Amino acid sequence: MLSKKTRVCVLRIGHRPERDKRVTTHVALTARAFGASCFVLGDIEDQSVSESLRKVCERWGCGDFKYISGVPSVKFIEEWKSLGGSVIHLTMYGLHVDDVINSIKSSPRDILVVVGASKVPRIFYELADFNVAIGHQPHSEVAALAVFLDRLFGGEELHLIFSDAKYYIEPSVKGKKVVRVG
Ligand code: SAM
After folding, report:
1. Domains identified in the chain and CATH numbers
2. Which of 87, 90, 99 to mutate to test the pocket of ligand 1 (most atoms within 8 A of CB)?
3. 14 pocket-lining for ligand 1 (C-beta < 6 Å)
4. Whole-number CA gyration radius for the chain
5. Which pLDDT tens digit goes with each residue over 8-26?
């Protein structure tokens, strides 16, 4: 059963610095805002991504959310599995999310969610415990990740508060209300 202790991490594979900086940053921000505990940028470092995330953490908080980069993706997945975690690869070719989300939620294992950028090599389909489609139409890794995490956490993640935030938003009907903590 998915509990507060279940760790959910997001691994971004295939990042191309010359064209994916913005989308990869949005994958990382989505991981943070939608309840994951860490974001892993596989196989490469990108200072632009880490710097954007750092600025968001500085202002809006990140709690225990971790950023890791440059680790070999395949090795990371193999180690994750050897430690008992499960691996969910998001792909439009996989099983429909509606058909697998209950099995995924009922497992107590930590979850690594893998999202691609360019063409995803076959090995990632094979290493995954579940290849999951957020519908069978091509869209975006940001959309796929957001929908998957929302299904996983049942919407609770949208009420997330980071204890180290310097600012928070006071909801308003019109306009923007940003309050400094303390
Ligand atoms: N052309 C690439 C391929 O064939 O592997 C995929 C490119 S797509 C823009 C980037 C990523 O978005 C995919 O690797 C996948 O993680 C995610 N994605 C896009 N549509 C999806 C869908 N319908 N369901 C699940 N994930 C999806």
Report:
1. 8-180 (3.40.1280.10)
2. 90
3. no
4. 16
5. 999 999 999 999 999 999 9
